[in-house]
Amino acid sequence: MFCGPDRLWYTYVMANLPDALRQAIRSRLLSWASTSLRDLPWRGERDPYRVWVSEIMLQQTRVETVIPYYERWIARFPTVEALAQADLGEALKCWEGLGYYARCRHLHRAAQVVLRDHGGQLPDDRDALLALPGIGLYTVGAILSLAFAQDAALLDGNVRRVLSRLLALDSDPKAAQTRKTLWSWAESLTPPGKAGQFNEAMMDLGATICTPRHPLCAECPLREVCQAYAGGDPEGCPSPLRREPTPHYDVAAGVIWEGESVLIAQRPLDGLLGGLWEFPGGKREAGETLTQCLERELCEEMGIQVVVGTQLIAIKHAFTHFRVTVYAFECRYGSTHDPETIGVNDWCWARLEDLDRYPFSVVDQKIIVALRASKQREAQGVQT
């Protein structure tokens, strides 16, 4: 578990964090933060709603990716009330491309709860915040310390890494016992009256200096009190986890035409990419051709038959825990009845020029681009 130079130091610190060490970490980090924090659109915000939105968007997402989404979101939904009264589809459209769409659904639902139960004001109570959809211990710590100036600690991926190296832990920082240890450290280190500044500094240090690979130890304000640095292998703490092979799936999707309109389906609200629209289809099973897969999936999910035509495009895409190759085929509608909502939340026929009104995943957006390019080539061919 311990990868530093002195196991006795580890045992002692775990039993009783020396006050001198605690004060050294606090003072060094806050001094560094006074001149080195990044200039971000939400930095310095004390509006609880904006703090909440920024922290939800930043979960598992890089800062540079979040910035334009945050700015567009605040322009469109400047208050809890504005978000709560908006349609979920409108919120998902604004979130389109940011990924982890459950965050958006939870944010939208939580805004409705805040409007209904808290008068549109995000509560400053820990238990009330935890009761809201999509808010966990980290987000509570961020909201309470940054928006309400309360002495609340937080623990995200960056903070876990910084603390793991200060403490020289090589166990999995996501394991229950290690997580408990790191929470205890975070709470012990958070300075009374300056929790917000300290938390921002810890997160920024992990994002810009104490990075997963090639940490910039020469620039780190904490290197003289860092046990991983003293041990000569800061990158080795925490130890890289052994990753299992990432599974891969083939998926067939149908671009199904009837006249000048194409069939799109809304995914179930509680699953992967929930609430987004897509060109319907599904995962290929063993022994199936892609055509057989598409015909089966469309029958199972929407109760329809199609005539599968030519392949439009193949798209490779990686999710967090698996990869897919999506094969999109142009199809002709073959049923005499309307589609059914067996395995989808909703469906509609849409003209090509109207597809921009709907929120789609990155993969389906690429299908739309390929489809429009194909139609443009057809039009140019007719003209010539």
Give the helices and strands, then pairings:
Blueprint: H1 7-15, H2 19-36, H3 48-58, H4 63-76, H5 80-84, H6 88-95, H7 102-117, H8 126-130, H9 137-147, H10 157-167, H11 176-189, H12 195-208, H13 227-230, E1 248-258, E2 261-266, E3 277-278, E4 281-283, H14 290-302, E5 306-318, E6 323-333, E7 346-351, H15 362-383
Parallel strand pairs: 1-6
Antiparallel strand pairs: 1-2, 1-4, 2-3, 2-7, 5-6
Helix pairs in contact: 2-12, 3-4, 3-9, 9-12, 10-11, 10-12
Summarize the structure.
With 384 residues, this protein is an alpha+beta fold.
Key phrases:
Endonuclease III, domain 1, 7-stranded mixed β-sheet, alpha+beta, 384 residues, 2 domains, elongated, 46% helix, disordered N terminus, single chain, Nucleoside Triphosphate Pyrophosphohydrolase
The domain tally reads 2
Ends distance: 71 Å
Approximate strand percentage: 5-15%
Helix content: 40-55%
Give the CATH H-level superfamily of the largest domain: Hypothetical protein, domain 2
What's the CATH C level of the largest domain? Mainly Alpha
Number of helical runs? Answer: 15
Number of strands: 7
Named CATH architecture of the largest domain: Orthogonal Bundle
Mean pLDDT score:
91
Order of helices and strands: HHHHHHHHHHHHHEEEEHEEEH
pLDDT < 50 stretches? 1-12
